[in-house]
Amino acid sequence: MHFRVYLFAFLLVAGSLALPFAAHAAIPFFGPIIPNEQITVNGVVTNQNVCAAGWGMVMVVINNIISLLLTLAIVFVAPLMIAWSGFLFVVNPVNAAGKEQAKKILTNTVIGIVIALAGYMIVAALMAVLYNADAKVPGTTLGTWSDIIRGDSTKLCLPLAGSLKPAVAPPPVVSVVCSVPPLSALTDPLAQQMEAGQTVIWNNTDPRLQTCANKFINDAGGGSVTSAYRPQSYQNHLWEIRDRWCTQNLRSNSNSACSSLKSTVSAEVSKHGLSACGAVAQTNSTHGSGTGVDIKLTSGNYSDSTQLARQACLTWANYPDDPYHYNLIPNCSCQ
Q1: Chain centroid to CA 262
Q2: What's the rounded Cα separation, in Å, for the pair 179 and 163?
Q3: What pLDDT digit, counting tens, does each position of 190-233 carry?
Q4: Which site among 5, 158, 256, 321 is 20 to 30 Å from 332 CA-CA?
Q5: What is the location of CATH 3.30.1380 in the chain?
Q6: d(Cα 148, Cα 125) in Å, to the nearest integer?
């Protein structure tokens, strides 16, 4: 009997203290768990009730989940447990074990409800002892401990990009471009073959050209053919090398943006012997028509060999800085 009196007194006092906190927690609570918060962009509230959750929103959602669980416990679980304990009392009027089980269920249910509702009061009592709201932190004080749990209601939504100050655009990057155009790619199979090292090709030449060139070399005391037929693309390739190196003066260009191209063209100049910047036709070359040939004499005496060249049906072109070029004389036989 004394136990029942003490239990009733405890429940009465605890319930009286807990009920105000239940009201503070807005119980019963059935949602929504995630509150609708309007978006504010540049100080203007939009009509969209969706936003990216901030820290304040996270804390509100946690508190709403706790309120929902308390609501379910009080509104649904507790009445069912109390009804079940009452049922056990009714069906076990003389059964001591059944009555004891019913009392235990009823007691545990009521105590659980009171503890759940008084949880805030219990935490507040502990924090009053353990927490110092006036403690100094850089620039401010800690403040009320419950503000930490409730979060900052003014920061439920993260600021949108439209509401942020625009970032200062970095200065534009000024790219330095070489003023000298690159060399064109070789796609003609014969041109690729010549670039690979087979510079003397008799394909597409006049049938007399090879015979007349050999006759002249024998008559002049020796030498060699260095170039015969050239497809137009290869002739243009040689012209581009000379144009970039000599005409556009890439050889004296110190621009760092041109360093790669300069290395490439320099290698081509050395490969084709164009360092002297001799004449190179871009179009209408007799190499392309199959009647031109480059011959390098062993003696190096080109001006004194013009008569021997004519006897071999060849005429010396005598281009500046290019003494090697000869053209086939029309309607002439060197047999």
Answers
A1: 32
A2: 45
A3: 888 888 888 898 988 999 999 999 999 999 999 999 999 988 99
A4: 321
A5: 189-328
A6: 16
The residue with tokens 């871009």 is 282
Q: Which two tokens stand for residue 52?
A: 């990216």
Matching residue, tokens 């804390």: 59
**Domain 189-328 falls in which CATH fold?**
Muramoyl-pentapeptide Carboxypeptidase; domain 2 (3.30.1380)
Distance CA 272, CA 306 (A): 25
Is this model's pTM higher than 0.70 or not? no
Tokens 């970039």: give the residue.
Answer: 244
More confident residue, 240 or 28: 240
Amino acid at 130: L
